[in-house]
Structures are given as structure tokens and as C-alpha cells.
Amino acid sequence: MQKLEDVVLAEIHPLACHVCTARFQAVYPAPGIPFFGPHLAAHQLIRGCTVCGSDFATSRLQALALLPAP
Ligand SMILES: [Zn+2]
């Protein structure tokens, strides 16, 4: 069986900044994965819009990673 101890499973959802409406593919941790917990701390959450610089309170953007929308 393949070892998954260091793997973080993620889901990608479309997301848009509430300030500048920039669109992203936001990477979120997959829910319900029991071995995810210890590894979440290793990831720096992005809190805010990387396009206009608005913080999380106004942009409502938070994710493990923000990818450009296709
Ligand atoms: Zn923005």
C-alpha cells in the first residue's frame, strides 16, 4: 500500500475577490481526511487578495493556494 503520511489532499473551488472581482482557483484542504491535521500547520494560508492586496476581511479570500482562473 502506498504511504500517504506526508500527503495533503486538496480540493479546488472557483473563488472571486469581493473587492476587485479577480477570479481564482482556490485550493482548500479536503474535508474528513484524518491524517490531514498535522500537516495543515506546514502550510501558510493565503488570507487576502493577491491582485488588489485587500485583506481577508474585505476580499473574503482564504485558501492554501490561489491559482489563476483558467
Ligand atoms: Zn482583489
Automatic annotation (TrEMBL):
This is Uncharacterized protein. It comes from the Bacteria.
